[in-house]
């Protein structure tokens, strides 16, 4: 089980409303989240507060972050603070009491995670390994953004090789009015072929962006989500179906891609060196070519090309004869 410690200092003149807001939040957590550990401490003779949080699971943490009472608390507290709250992630190591001997699996012991809060005037939130850039008008209202680093995801069952650890943008699933840019610094990665930012969804990972023109790689998100960098080394797989007989043969190919996804605008058929007007059937995962004129008798070469979103190119060839 993991713990989050937040630290914030309240302006002395705003101490009373801050204590009232904290008391309201603790009461709401006690009522709606009976399995959540939420403790508030205050430094002696100082307006500095510490909160210790721990959740039953990721779903419970997500519900907490998206709750109405947490949003109300953030709106009340942030204007009262002297500077931005600081967050530290901890993993349980040892304790003198048995009831504190909790699960030590998952995140390595004593690993601290970089976090930042609130979009500043410069328009970005930054951690040690990543930056979230956004306009100050990107949110629909006051928004307290947290960037939390987590260990590298497990290797994908598909075509994706994990390169970085997870970056959790919270409150999770909060929609943005304008897209934000997520940038990962990748020291030591000279070969950036196949690198892209992906977001976690219900079925796995979905492509976000693969802009490597800067020092790292970046993509855009339309909501606060969990993202990471993967490398896709595998090109799409193409199978050209037999064209059949007749002078207007059927041009069809099935294309499989389980990594970054296809760049649909770059899918095409080439017949005897000339590009054929083609369309992509999403439901059937098929490329269909439309001939403008009958094909002359004789031998012909048909090429199908497919490119994925990180530039991996695939070609398939088929020779057929029209009699």
Concise account of the structure shown:
The protein is built from 3 helices and 21 strands. The chain has helices spanning 15-32, 58-65, 68-77, and strands at residues 2-9, 37-42, 48-54, 86-91, 124-126, 130-133, 146-150, 160-162, 166-170, 175-184, 195-201, 204-209, 217-223, 226-232, 237-240, 251-256, 268-271, 274-281, 286-290, 298-307, 313-322.
Please explain how this structure is put together.
The protein is mainly beta and 323 residues long. It has 2 domains: 2-232, Alpha-Beta Plaits; 237-322, Immunoglobulin-like, CATH 2.60.40. Helices cover 11% and strands 41% of the residues. The strands form 4 sheets. The chain has a 7-stranded antiparallel sheet, with no helix packed on it. Strands 7, 8, 9, 11, 12 and 14 form a 6-stranded antiparallel sheet that branches. The protein has a 4-stranded antiparallel sheet with strand order 2-3-1-4, with helices on one face. A hairpin with a 4-residue loop joins β18 (274-281) and β19. α1 packs antiparallel against α3 (68-77). The radius of gyration is 26 Å and the shape is elongated. Mean pLDDT is 84; it is low at 96-122.
CATH class group of the largest domain: Alpha Beta
Low-confidence stretches: 96-122
Number of domains: 2
Counted by DSSP, the helix tally is 3
Whole-number average pLDDT? 84
- In which order are the strands of the major sheet placed? 15-16-19-18-17-20-21
Termini distance?
71 Å
* Helix content bin: 10-25%
What is the fold-level CATH name, i.e. the topology of the largest domain?
Alpha-Beta Plaits
- SS elements, strand count: 21
Shape: elongated
H-E order: EHEEHHEEEEEEEEEEEEEEEEEE
Please summarize the sheet with the most strands: 7 strands, antiparallel
- Secondary structure category: mainly beta
Q: Which percent band covers the strand fraction?
A: 35-45%
The name of the CATH architecture of the largest domain is 2-Layer Sandwich
- Kindly provide the radius of gyration, computed on alpha-carbon positions and rounded to a whole number of angstroms: 26 Å
